[in-house]
Write a structure and sequence with these properties.
Blueprint: E1 8-11, E2 14-18, E3 22-27, E4 40-46, E5 49-55, H1 59-62, H2 64-67, E6 70-76, H3 79-90, H4 95-112, H5 114-119, H6 122-147, E7 149-154, H7 157-174, E8 179-186, E9 202-207, E10 209-211, E11 218-220, E12 226-228, E13 233-236, E14 241-245, E15 248-252, E16 257-267, E17 277-283, E18 301-314, E19 319-325, H8 332-341, H9 353-357
Parallel strand pairs: 4-7, 7-11
Antiparallel strand pairs: 1-2, 2-3, 3-6, 4-5, 5-6, 8-9, 8-19, 10-12, 12-13, 13-14, 14-15, 16-18, 17-18, 18-19
Helix pairs in contact: 4-6, 7-8
Length: 358
């Protein structure tokens, strides 16, 4: 499966088509748009170096009758400008959600006080519902255009090949039926807890989401390997790795992350995934020798599974993320491809473009 996806991108009612020196902007409905046209970013590679460009929008360009089928040129940009844009847009609120909540509250109030419905005419009630629906739809498309970050990628050469291998390796992780974030590890030997041998760990965990959708308000022409946990969200874009921590957004380079791929034994108290290896069993209540504790009448057998263990270490942030995958012997190829991506040169400042490209 190739990592390239769409040729044209969207943000609200705005559509974008990449050209050699800029973008063509048009709308689904001719000369009709809602909200402001977002900045369009273009990231391309030359001689294993990333370069950044972005459109320049003025007030005249933002008017709907000027946007339809309009060409906007690129100017030099940088990775810091892109990060700033994502950070600013991440802090914006979704207004359509507020209007939807108000719409629901109004509906509940009208249904609770049924006498009001008898006083108001059906036509007036229909106008209220229609008006609120239009407001919600308007704010939805407005929010989409304001909060969406638009990025066109154009990779070539060794970077394209390596990122394709990274994407293929991530697809193997994605094929696992289940993934978890490990929150804490502890050995338990209390009488009403699972008692096991010291070489098997008992951990607290939560489900993790593995997909290729990218972050919510990203419109791009590639599939983005994404790992979402209850604490951190990691998005592996070709040039940088975006790290979302609640309201905070940062980027790290591939050279700033270390992935250790290993396997681990895990006492699976819940349903065993279909692709998991069961290597042994233990008892819910076991004595020090590992045999069943006969003091407990209801003492069930619990499988010990063999899972993949991936440890991500973000050096600059002093962050360690431990993930378990239901299938063993996974992640080694993904770890190797992360190292390969780290070997490419970082993007240069715009004033060095002509010298390096030439």
């Amino acid at each position: 499966m190739l990592f390239y996806s769409h040729k044209n991108l969207r943000a609200g009612l705005f559509c974008f088509s990449l050209l050699s020196s800029g973008v063509r902007i048009f709308t689904k409905i001719p000369k009709f748009c809602i909200g402001s046209c977002p900045i369009v970013n273009h990231i391309f590679t030359k001689a294993n170096i990333f370069y950044y460009r972005a459109t320049v929008l003025d007030k005249k360009s933002l008017k709907c009758h000027n946007v339809y089928n309009k060409f906007l040129p690129f100017q030099d940009s940088s990775s810091s400008n892109l990060l700033t844009e994502v950070q600013q847009k991440h802090k914006l609120y979704f207004h359509y959600q507020i209007w939807t909540l108000l719409f629901l509250i109004l509906s509940i109030v009208l249904s609770e006080y049924f006498k009001i419905l008898e006083i108001l005419s059906p036509f007036f009630i229909s106008m209220i519902i229609l008006g609120m629906t239009v407001i919600v739809i308007f704010n939805y498309f407005r929010d989409q255009s304001l909060k969406t970050t638009v990025i066109f990628y154009n990779l070539d050469g060794e970077i394209k090949q390596t990122y394709q291998k990274l994407f293929d390796a991530f697809q193997e992780l994605k094929s696992c039926s289940r993934a978890w974030l490990v929150n804490a590890a502890e050995d338990t030997f209390e009488s009403h807890e699972i008692k096991i041998k010291s070489d098997v760990s008992v951990v607290q965990r939560s489900l993790a989401t593995i997909n290729t959708k990218g972050f919510r308000q990203l419109s791009t022409n590639i599939f983005v390997p994404s790992i979402k946990t209850s604490k951190y969200h990691l998005y592996f874009l070709p040039d940088k790795i975006f790290v979302f921590d609640g309201s905070q957004v940062e980027t790290i380079s591939y050279s700033d992350i270390i992935l250790i791929a290993d396997n681990t034994e895990f006492i699976e108290k819940y349903d065993v995934p279909l692709d998991a290896f069961v290597i042994n069993h233990t008892w819910q209540y076991a004595n020090k020798s590992g045999k069943a504790d006969k003091r407990f009448k209801f003492n069930r057998k619990i499988p010990i599974t063999y899972y993949s263990k991936l440890t991500f270490k973000i050096l600059s942030k002093d962050i360690t993320i431990i993930l378990h995958f239901s299938r063993a012997y996974m992640g080694l190829e993904f770890s190797n491809m992360l190292k390969e991506m780290a070997s490419f040169s970082p993007c240069s400042p715009p004033d060095q473009w002509e010298q390096e490209i030439g």
